[in-house]
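dumping the sequnces here before i forget
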Amino acid sequence: MVGKAFFENLGESLNPVFIKEMRQYFQNRRMVVFMGLLLIVQFIVALFFASAMTFDTDGDEGVAFFLLIIFAGAGLSVLLCSIGAEQRFAEERSDKELNYSMLTTLKPSAVILGKLEGAMVMILCIFSMLLPFLTAAYFMRGLSMASLLVTLYLFPILILYALAGIFAGSFGQKWVTVLFFVGIFNSAFGLVPAAFSIIDDLMDRGSLDSSFWIALLVEYEIALLLGVMLFLLSLAVVSPPKSNRLLPAKAYLFALPFLSLILMLPYYIIYGPADFPPDAFYFIEFAFCFFSAAVLGIIAIFEMPTNSIRVYLKCPLNFIGRVLHFLFSTGFSGSLILAFLILAIPVAMYPFGDLSGDNTSQVCGFLCILVSSLGYVLLSLVLSWRTKLPLPAWLWMIIFEVAGNVLAWIPVAVNSGEMRGIPFPVRIASMLISPTYCFMETIEESVASTPGTAPRGGFFPLTITHHALFCSLAVAGVLFLILLPAIVKAFRMHRRPDTGAVKPPTKEMLGK
Amino acid sequence: MKTEVRNLTRVFGKTVAVNDISFSFEDGNIFGFIGPNGAGKTTTIRIMATLDLATSGDVFYDGVSATLYPEAVRRVVGYMPDSLPGYKDIQVWEYLDFFARSFGLKGAERTRALNDIVEFTNLGELRGKFLYALSKGMKQRVSLARALIHNPKVLIMDEPAAGLDPRARHELRTLLKILADQKKAIFLSSHILSELQDICDGAVIIEQGKLLSAGTLNDLLAQVNGGAPAPTPAQPQPGESADLSASDAAPAAPQPQAVPKGVSIMLKTPRGEAEPVRLKLLEHPLTRSVDLFDDDEVHAVIEGTDAEVSRVVGTVFAAGLTVLSFTRNQMGLEELFMKITQGKVQ
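..and the predicted 3d for all of it:
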């Protein structure tokens, strides 16, 4: 009786989307066929390996069989829990009239979480199904504990794939599905060799040392940060139109540079103050700031200048609350200000960064890329919202990026493919308009500044990179000032309307 | 529950899909939403069902704004679109169970709601079928069950009878009448106007996003048939709301006198005497037309008030002629629609 009551309560407390997902997974013909095929193939391969065993003391048939199993499991997980989840969610979202997130009282977070839970349980199911074969692999010899634990590396990657599938599916658009497939296909080229490299390293090592756990921790942390980001972006896409859909994502992006400090703490403790790499702190902080500001800039491109009454209704009445609500609410003004606030962190830290020559150059170059890109965002928004040219900001952005990159590389093409020898002002201008050129120039300079590798035609001094950075900051500043009236106007509008006449929902409507 | 659409406007780019329309209705009645293709019906319905947001104006349910509180409004509104997902991996019962859970129904309450709705929509035999395997009529029943699973007070339906065979349409009509008897407000768009006329208490007619006419069915028909003006404004001024509620209109004033356009009488005469009867009828000032069929049948159209027509018919009976049929030629919803719309699309 107690057991029955427990399971009944458990069933009631489960997310409805999760229940629906599980029902759909297990009633999907493709799922049943693929899982059946996997089992049959595994069984045949297991028989093959077993028959080929030589019973030598140093046999390693187990290793090959083990790798085969986990990669088959990972492949099936990507196919069913990432691509499958994307397909199903895209189908559900493509017809707006059948979109249950808009027809029911389900919260968008429940929808995404239910999808994620479903995918995670399916990944576990697939690997549970493989457990007998993994055990067989262990008895075939050649496997160390380290190689068995390689599966721990796989799970965060598979969960990220599933989240990417959910994110792509949340758009309900075919072109996003195509992009997602391209991404999956391309990522396989990078991830599979990387995975093999890690496994090879583990196999050679044979035992677990601290570097194994640190690498695992790094992977889990990065997966967690990216996973939360994908979750919040999916949430933003699924949220009702004109709601404050970007608030969680913006708050998270703004918090990310500060979260990075917490994430660095374990390494600081493991390495100790003496052995902690001197540039690591600055680099990690810089990387997080770069990522946050860049994503905020991209978000700003797709946003409107003002908000809907739904958002204004939740605006605090006091000034500080109103400012914070304005910054983190949907609307490009908040995104831009947050992006520049985050950008200010590495810029302010830059003069104090204890960096080696090469690192200084790279950090400066990447800062330059970020500022230039934000400059493009500003320019696109200025043209879209401050002029009467009828193109959306994101299209302006694409035009500038393409045109800038083409223009920047023309002098290089004219100069026989060499950056050296082009006048410095042209090189600085090229750095301002083209992120790709800026990146290559940074690498060029890193090589040039390495002792003993000075090129014949003289090298690009670090001060010039600084000039490029300051120029891009100045340009971005001017563009920001042009957009300032629109931002001020948006802030003036961002206040709670007079709600005296608004009738609140009844208890029945609130489900009480 | 009073549903009030107030100054609703929806703009897509340069197209004004819905242009400042206002009307309202209350529970216990069925209201038709009529307009040519592209008139803005689905856009209006989507906004009413919280699937879309108005550019300006709002929809209120008992005074609660659908724009500001969409989640709250969804608890009292059921929306039935004209389609159903064709999932290959989910059964009818599971689909309904999912929606019941999504509305927060738990345990015995959910089981009861599911059983009731399956019985009401006669889905018992379809419980274990997959959605993709259902016919159009079955899908419409599942869609209705889905819209009603949380027992909403207002049911909004977009073309519920589209693609249904006569039997399924009859079943749908019956279900709607039962729901209206349960004091639910039903608002449905349809192109099958004869169906609407049979079940609707009122109608809203729009074209090119603008409200052309709105009111109880009697009011609307009375207007176009030349009767007394309806007690409620059928064509509201901007900012005003046309109240369609039959329940409101009826006690306030006597039912408006729907003046007939006329009557059609089919008479049987002795063979060869049809022509003298035709000539006699044509002498009467109220006779609009007289046609002969064979040489012993006369079809006459007589126009006038009820009293005038009665006098003419009395004369016919007094003359000893056999009356084969007697039909009141009142304008129907279809004629009304054709008369007040111009078939323009945006």
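The radius of gyration of chain B is 24 Å.
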